[in-house]
Amino acid sequence: MSWNNNKNIKCRWCGKFLKDKGWKWECPDETCGYVILDTSVYKTKLCPKCKIKKVVSEFSKCATRKDNLQFYCKQCTAIKEGK
Ligand SMILES: [Zn+2]
Ligand SMILES: [Zn+2]
3 lies in which domain range? Predict the structure, then answer.
């Protein structure tokens, strides 16, 4: 495996070191699927449903929205969709 990993960001879900893809960090574990976008590592967004400020990686991407993120966090979206 080759990746330059100078920031050593750990996956918040499984604890593995994320792969630096240039503009995002990706969990090496495909079944985990954790991804952090480069510019948004420390950015937070308030979810209007659960009223919790979460890092933007907790929000699914949505191309039609201005900030490219879903309105609600992943958790609330999952509840809404009945998963
Ligand atoms: Zn992971
Ligand atoms: Zn929420």
Answer: 1-38
